[in-house]
Amino acid sequence: MIRGSGPGRFGAASILRRVLGRFKPEPPVTPGVLEPEELRRLLGKPDPVILDIGCNDGTHTLMFLRLFARARVFAFEPDARARRRFEATVRDARARLFATAIGAVDGVAAFYPSDGAPSAEWAARLPEGWDFSGSIRKPKQHLDIHPWCRFGQKTEVALTRLDSWAKAQDIGEVDFIWADVQGAEEDLVEGGRETLNRTRYFYTEYSNRELYEGQANLAQLLGMLPDFELVHRYQGEIHRYQGDVLLRNRRFDR
C-alpha cells in the first residue's frame, strides 16, 4: 500500500479516462526500436536534460551520456541491487542517481522485488537475482506469462512524485524522459503532470495485458496525456501486446 501526502491514485477523472480509453483505436506499429541517432536528431542539442526513470543498471544512462556531450541525466531506481550495478558502471559527474521510485504521491510504497532468471546465463550474470521486473504495483498476469520470474516478499521503498522532485531540484524544461516503471505508468503521470507539461519527449513501456494490478493499457495511457502526440509505437520483442511508445509534447509548438 502506498502511503504519503498527495491525491489518491484513482480519482473520478482517472476512472473516466480509463473507460474512454477502451474505445480508442490502436496506433500503427513502427518496426525496430528507438535508435540512438534518431534520439540525437530529435533532441538536436548537445546539452539536453534527460530523466531515466527505472534506470536499473544504467545501460540507458550510459547511452545518453555517449550521445550528448553536455547532457544532464537524472536517474531513478528503487531496487538496491540494481543501484549497486549502476554505481559500479556509471561514474560520470553528468549523471545523478536517486534511490526512489517515482509515483503518484510522496512517501513510501510497497515494492515487489523480482527474482529468478530466464536462463543459466542470466543467473550467472545476476548473482543477486533478476532485478528488472520489480514494481510498486503487485504482479498479476506477469506471474503466468513469465513463470520463471518470481517475486520475493514485498519491501518498502521511498516514493516521490515527479513534480515534487522537479521542484526540489529546480528543474525547468525536460528534453526527454525514458520510463521503465513496470506497470506503474499511471502513477508516474498522476504525480508528474506539471513536469510532463514541460517535457518535450516522453518514451515509455506499455502493456495491453494487466501484467501488474491496475496497470493502464496503451489506449488508457494515451488518454492520460492529451497534450502529447504519438511519434512511434514500437512492437515488443516477445509479445505483440506490449512494446514502447515515443510521444511528443505539442505544447512546444505553441
What top-tier CATH class fits best? Alpha Beta
What is the number of E strands? Answer: 13
Mean pLDDT: 89
Query: Residue share in helices?
Result: 25-40%
CATH fold label: Rossmann fold
**General form:** globular
How would you spell out the order of helices and strands? Answer: EHHEHEHEEEEHHEEHEHHEHEE
Strand order within the widest beta sheet:
4-3-2-10-11-13-12
What profile does the largest beta sheet have?
A: 7 strands, mixed
Fourth-tier CATH superfamily name: Vaccinia Virus protein VP39
Q: What are the segments in which pLDDT stays under 50 over at least 5 consecutive residues?
A: 1-10, 17-23
Determine the N-to-C terminus distance: 40 Å
| Overall domain count | 1
The fraction of residues in strands falls at 25-35%
Per CATH, the architecture is 3-Layer(aba) Sandwich
Instruction: Report the C-alpha radius of gyration, rounded.
Output: 17 Å
Secondary structure category? alpha/beta
| Count of DSSP H/I helices | 10
Task: Explain briefly what this protein structure is.
The protein is built from 10 helices and 13 strands. It has 254 residues and is α/β, with parallel strands linked by helices. Strand 3, helix 4 and strand 4 form a beta-alpha-beta unit.
Question: Care to describe what's here?
Answer:
- The protein starts with a strand and ends in a 5-residue tail after the last strand.
- With 254 residues, it is an alpha/beta fold.
- It has a single domain (36-253), classed as Vaccinia Virus protein VP39 (Rossmann fold, 3-Layer(aba) Sandwich).
- It has helices at residues 12-21, 36-43, 59-67, 80-89, 120-125, 142-145, 162-169, 185-190, 193-197, 218-223, and strands at residues 3-5, 49-53, 72-76, 95-98, 101-103, 106-111, 114-115, 150-151, 155-161, 174-179, 199-207, 228-235, 242-249.
- It is built from ten helices and 13 strands.
- The protein has a seven-stranded mixed sheet. Strands 1-6-9-5 form a four-stranded mixed sheet. A two-stranded antiparallel sheet has the order 7-8.
